[in-house]
Structures are given as C-alpha cells and as structure tokens.
Structure of Aldehyde dehydrogenase (NADP(+)):
Amino acid sequence: MIKEKQIIGYQFSDEGSETFFSYNPATSLNNEYAFSKAASAEVDKAVEKAAAAFQQYYKKSGEEKAVFLETIAAEIINAGDTLITVCSSETGLPQARIEGERGRTVNQLKMFAALLREGSWVDARIETAIPDRIPLPKPDIRYMHIAIGTVVVFGASNFPLAFSVAGGDTASALAAGCPVIVKAHSAHPATSAIVGKAIQTAARKTNMPDGVFSLLYGDGTTTGIQLVKHPHVKAVGFTGSYRAGKALYDAAVSRPEPIPVYAEMGSSNPVFILPNAMKEKGAAIAAAYSGSVTMGVGQFCTNPGILFYHANEDDSFKNNLKTEFEKTNAGVMLTPLMFKSYKEAVKQHLQVNGVEQLAVGAITTNNNGNNIATPVLFSTNSETFKNSPSLSEEIFGPASITVTTAGKNEMLEIATKLSGHLTATIHGTEDELDDYKELINILEQKVGRLVINGFPTGVEVCSAMVHGGPFPSTTDSKSTSVGTAAIYRFTRPVCYQNMPDSLLPLELKNKNTLMIWRLINGERTNKDLN
Amino acid sequence: MIKEKQIIGYQFSDEGSETFFSYNPATSLNNEYAFSKAASAEVDKAVEKAAAAFQQYYKKSGEEKAVFLETIAAEIINAGDTLITVCSSETGLPQARIEGERGRTVNQLKMFAALLREGSWVDARIETAIPDRIPLPKPDIRYMHIAIGTVVVFGASNFPLAFSVAGGDTASALAAGCPVIVKAHSAHPATSAIVGKAIQTAARKTNMPDGVFSLLYGDGTTTGIQLVKHPHVKAVGFTGSYRAGKALYDAAVSRPEPIPVYAEMGSSNPVFILPNAMKEKGAAIAAAYSGSVTMGVGQFCTNPGILFYHANEDDSFKNNLKTEFEKTNAGVMLTPLMFKSYKEAVKQHLQVNGVEQLAVGAITTNNNGNNIATPVLFSTNSETFKNSPSLSEEIFGPASITVTTAGKNEMLEIATKLSGHLTATIHGTEDELDDYKELINILEQKVGRLVINGFPTGVEVCSAMVHGGPFPSTTDSKSTSVGTAAIYRFTRPVCYQNMPDSLLPLELKNKNTLMIWRLINGERTNKDLN
C-alpha cells in the first residue's frame, strides 16, 4: 500500500482519520494507493496559504506565469507512463484515450502560456486626461483585468487529466493569477496525486510562492463545501453532475459574501436532422451519430442524447440507425455509482409509455463484466417526448433517444421549449438550413455552441470555443470552461484614476513595452501612448 | 390630478387598484401626478411582450440599435423643461444638477450608439478549419457575444435620469440587444413617466418591436420581486441600497433557473492621506474632501465616507477639515425615508464611544426645513474604528468620519481588513506613493476604481471606467455599471461550428463588411478573412 498525502503548498500533510483507496472499475478491486480525507484544519491551512500566496502571485508577469504553466506541462510529461497506467487503472479508460487526454492537458497549459506571453487578454483600456474640459476636467482612467483571488477547482470524473488537477479550470485560474486549490475527484485520486506533485514541482522550480497550489482529498459534501464556504475563497470551477454543481452553487450564493461558481453540469446536446440532409446522407449520419453517442462509453459532457427528425414513411434512416447502433461497443464506466445510475436511467426511460428500445450495442465480456454499460438507443414520437419531461434529461452514459416530429412547426415548437444545453446540432443542406433559419435562431439562444453538419462530441481547445451554455447546462451562461476566454472567469476589471505612470502596471504604462493591443481613447492600437 | 399609466410596450395600461402620488421632498406635499401600482397581470404582460420582442430585437444590427438609442436621446431632449422641473420637484435636486444629469444621460446613450456603430465590442473570434489535421480535423469555430434576453432595470433614487429609466443600465441592455422592463423608482415616478414615454416614442419612430421597452410602477417587494422571479427574465440591473439589492440577488439565485443580478449597492469609498501630501497640500485636500463628501447632499454612490491619516501632533489638517467642512451646506434629501435613515445613522455614530463630532455644515432654512440634511463630520482613532464595525458602513447622506492611524503598518492593517468598495483614494507625493506601494496593492484588491490624488465623487463615463467592486459594493465584482464595458452584463458568448458563411452573423462572415476588429486564428485584425 502506498499512502498519498494532502499537498498543501510545499508541504505534505496527513492529518485525516478517514481512509479510502483508489479503485479499479474494470476489476472492482482497490488499487494500491490509499488516501485520507482532508481534516478540517488541513482545508483551512490550504486556503490560508493560498490567500497569502495570492499577494505575490497575482503580481507575477505574464512571462513568469507562462513559464510556470509550461513547467507544469513538462512535469506532467516527466511523470511518464506511470501516469497513463495509474489513470487507466482508476478510470477504466483505454491507455490510448488517456495519452490523447494528456496531450490535450499539456496543450491547454501551453495555450494559456501563449495567451499570457501575447498579453492582450488583460483588455487594457486607456482614456487620457483632458484637464481643460468644460464644465469638468476629464481625469486619466486606465482599465485592465486582474486576478480575483483564490480559486477552488473540482476535478471532473470523465476527464481525469484535461478537466482535473491540471486541467482547464486550473490552467485558466493560474493563468489569471489566482492560486488554486483542487479537491481531487475520488474516482481518480492516484492520478490526481501524480499530477498534483507535478504542479508542486513546477511551482518550486519556477519560484512560485508557497500555497499557489494545493491538492486535497475528500468528499464534496464536507471538504468541498468547507472550501466553497471559506471566506478567502473567491471563485469555484466545477465540471460534473447537476446535483453536485447546483449544491456548490447554492452554498456559494448563500455565503455572507457570495462568490461565482462556474459549474459545467452537462446536457443532452440535441441533434436535429432536416429532411434533405437525411435523404442525402442518412446512412453516414446514422453511423456518425451512433459513434458520437457511445464515444468514451458516452461519458463526455457533449455526447448527443436526443435526435430529432421528421417522421416519414420511409424507414431507412431508422433502420440505418438501428444497424449502426448495434455495431457500437459496451465499455467500462468510470465508477460503479455511475454504472448503477446509468442502468436505472435506462430502466426509467423504458418505463415511459411510448418509448421503445430501438437498438442495443454489442456486449463485450472481456473483463468479467465489471461496470460494463451497454449502449442503448431509444425511440419515441414527439407527443410522448413533450409529455415526458424526464426524456429531456441527460443520461450519463452511452444512451440516446430518437424523437420523430410531425414537421417543421413542431420541430420549432420543441426547440423553443428546450432548456439550456452545452451544444445543439443541425444537419441540413445549405438550402434547407436557410429555410430553417428560425431553428438556428432558437437554438443559438439555448446553447453555447451550435454545430452544423457535424457532431458535438470533441471540444476544440482554441480562442473561439464556448464550452458552456444557459442553465441548467452551467450555472453561468456568460462563461466558457474551454478555450482562452475561460480565463475571464477568474478575473475582474479594475481602473486607476490619475495614477502616476511609474506606479501603473506594465500593461497600462504610456510605453507599451509588452506591445499588447490596447484601447486608447477608443482606438485599438499596439503602439505606445505619446 | 394627472393619472399616469403603466407603459407596456406600445400600450398604456391602468389595471392596478393601489394608487400613490409623486411627492415633493422639499415641500412635503404631493405633486399632481398619480400612479397605480402595477397589477400582477400587467407585470406578466410586460414580460411576455419583452420575451416576444427579444426574438426580433436581438437580431437588429448595430446601426439599427444605435439609431434607436440616439432617438431616445433626442426624445429626452424633446421633453424640454418639463422634464427638468418635474424631476426637480420630485427629488429636491437643483435644476442645474438635473440639467447636467440629462446631459450625461443623453451622452451615455450616444456612447453606446457609437460603440454599436464601431461594432468590435462583440469580441468576434474566428478559428478556421484544418481538415487534414492529425489525428483529428480541426473544425471552423466562430465566437461572438449575443444578447442574454429580457433585462429588468431598477431605477436609482439618486440619479433620476442617468441611472433610472433611460440610464446606464437601460442604455447598455438595449445596446446589447435586450428588451428592458424598468421598475420605476417610487421617489421619481413622474420623471420616469416622461422618460418612459420618450423611449416608447423612440421605439415607434425606429420601428422597434412592441415590447422592447416597458415601464412599471410599484413596490420593489411585490412588482420588483415578481419581475425578478419571472422565468422569462434573464438578468437584472439595480442601483440602490444594500438591503434592496441583496434581496433581489437572493430572489434571483433561488429561482429554478438562477439569473445574474448586477446590483450596485454603494460603499463608503475610503480615502487615505499620506503624510507628505498632507504637509504639502493639507488645506486643499481638506477643502476638496469636504466638497466631495457633501456634493449632491452626499447622495452619490461615490461620496467618500471615511478618511484615514496618520495621527500627529500638528492639528492643522484637522483644523482645516473642521473649517472647510463648516462651510458646506445642508440640503434637501431625496426622500423622507432617506432623511430619517440619515438622521438615525448620524445618531448611531455619535453613540459609539470614542467618536466625536468634528464639524457640522451650515444649516440652510430656505425651504421650511423639509427633509434637510445637515452635513456631519465625525472623528475617531484607529482603535475605536477597528472595534466598531458599524463605523465602516456607508451613511447615505453628507456624513463622513476621519480616522487617525498610528503609522504605515496600521494603515496597511486597516486597509487589509476593508470589505469591497466602489472606490478607494490615496493622496500622496510621487515618492511617498512609491513607499506605499503595498497600500496600492491592497486597495486594488478591494475596489473597482483606485483614485490617486483626486476624489472619487464624479464617475467619468468612458471606455475605461469601472463603476463596481467586490461585494458588498456590488453583487458581481466582475462587472461595471458605467462605461462601455457595462454592455457585457447583458451578453453571453456563443460559438458556431462549421456554419456556412451565408448563415453566419455579419460579424463573423469571411468578408468583414463592418470592418470590426476580430481575432482570427489568434491574430487581431480588421481585415477580411480570405
């Protein structure tokens, strides 16, 4: 047995009395790594260290923070194959998938490092003084984004690397200038420990203040809530279930000082197939849809869960879907609890009058059947769908439902009634899309990302990504958790009035040594201010 | 008696049964304008109309919205002197002040019109496809801000024009593409009616959809809460007291679908005088501080309420303050309730052991003494201040307290313990400011605007302004309610994946016909995409 410890800044700590083990969902056996749940004093210690570290860390230059992020990336690579095998053993995810996710994690860190080096993200705005303005002089006002304070990050079960200890939330918060405390997900604590130590090493190597990063093990309901309620914590990043995300939100908004919670809580990502697209490429859509639903055992936030298409007398699309879906494979789910929830949700769908089981995926039995979810495709019609709100809810796992609609008007009606989702997708020919412009308009109001003639699974990490959407897909529709804009979750604007040039932050001085883009008296320029 | 009606889109409505009158705080008499509190059905009607109007309004071009805002500005000017005299009679504010505020209101509308015409505010980001990328093709992703939905605005008592019916919240929400429903402040309903009709006229003249604007009269606790709780309302703008703002926030976050509340709840705007500055220009600071405290009868959100300086044996600064403050004038407060609260707060301060009354302003008796607040300057030392949390709280009105500190370390200690404020101010010589860099660092974490060698009263309306700050000065430290960045309170980002060029919004098409600044594959440019 290897006992891992809480990472509290540059210290290791092991004061907790309740022990748990890393667990392998594919074998239903414990791994050799053991952990204590953080003691209350350890939680306080991590927050106090972070608050102290903040005073130095938020003043670090973009270059310094960039080097820190790149060193984290290098240390993650340094962790080598151990990271891959440990992560695979905790999540049931194939090694190739984890290797890919490691690449994404490293690239995210590098993307934020590049953002910091370029520097314009601070949105610097300068309005120069007009001392002789009538009736009142105009002062010199200079604006930029600064870090908000200590951030608590809750790792996601389904992205043990890319949305966990050194994932997108941590990378964007550290980039913003915020110390980070991660509450490790209990489904992959050993993976978390490896990555946490990589960050700790990188912080030391780059002379970051003690407390800029901590990693704690424990339950969401105790360790998690204690962190969210702590007065020195200023924002929260979370990816996971609606239930857990909403609980953190409720805790945060009822604090004496409310703080923002950026909870990405998943969604069922509706897909709309228009008639001509179905005619032209129905078979290809059926195959790709089946793959998109079941990719990663359906454990992505962006797997599509509902497919709408117009009912017609030609059964070929339905038959294609059935055939393609039956080719998909079962797979090990991340945790026994998720597997149990999946089975229950599938059962509940089948109990709805008017819902049929159209197809099930192939059942693989290569690991004794532990926590293996079989893909299921349901079908129903619009009447049943409209009368059964539970059918709109996400099933976390490789399940989806097809819904036939009576025509364009009913499709628009259903779209109008959708709640918030991370994504929506439309398949249509160009002419047809033009006819369905109203559907595009409705859906852009419901989602963070609208996909045309593609599939939502797979989130491109880039400057233009919005991985977010109206409630209940997130608790803050104005934010994204993927892409460079994610940094703004952890910053706020501040302005300086008549501040002497020598005391201004580098980004706001007359001389633009960083050569960043600034708005000077309403004009966008990367030149000096004369 | 003139009975005003609810403005519900292009209709007037008068279904309420409870009547109230416009009231003159300077005479304690009712004005001739009467109002009904909105009936519940009228509130629902306004929201339903707004939700319907949203579908057309958020698609209006920047040019169309700019013309709408400019027409509102013109219609406000068209309302002529009536607006000034009615507003003065409801608020006790002098006509010159209201004329100035009308100018600011009109300029705010024009500022947002200019922002819309320039167009780059949508933060357009384009990442082009790389179809042959290995291992996965990169899709085309395009990002921009769109309107969030119907916005409810609560007018502020202390800015009956600039932060009321057509004030900063309304201007920024309409600019964003959001229909607006204003809950008129009961302290200036007749002013609200005039401005509301100006907006209604402007909407008609520019062919805006019915429901893009409504104006309702009623209490915050009934009409206000009904609006905030309505499922079709998507955001709230508010300026006023902590109690009222926090109540709206609590209502909004406990909705089934939580929504953002941008409540600017005022603050006591601490001012720090460093020793050399005091030596060099103590008399001028004393005079300007007294003016800043009592300007507008102390009814600005940014009047400074606390002055810190180092205790010393030379009493000249204290004496200057006393002399200057005694020259300030009493004035009529906006409402009898505010006057009552002011008197109570002053009394409570004086009951604190260790607090002295250093000076009172001149008492004017030219209007029979109705609701006339006399300026009061308290003084105390740091020990008393630290032990009496009530002394940190804002007194709405022309009162302020001076606090002597034992030296730099104690000043830093007190600054560290401050809660969030809209502004903080430091007076110091350039060398001295460099010595007190730590104070600057502490204060920038506490406020939205840091003023050097000036006074916080008076908020410049420009692209670089932050009128906001950490809780409890606002409910969202990431926002500003003044300046062009205020628009982002009412927008959210959305991205389009592989959307055909013909269907993209104008801002995201390959050809940049609007010539806006965009981020294309990480590069900032106002050119077309080839």
Notes: DSSP finds 15 helices and 24 strands in chain A. Chain A touches chain B through 77 residues (CB under 8 Å). Chain A has two domains: 2-265+478-489, 271-452.
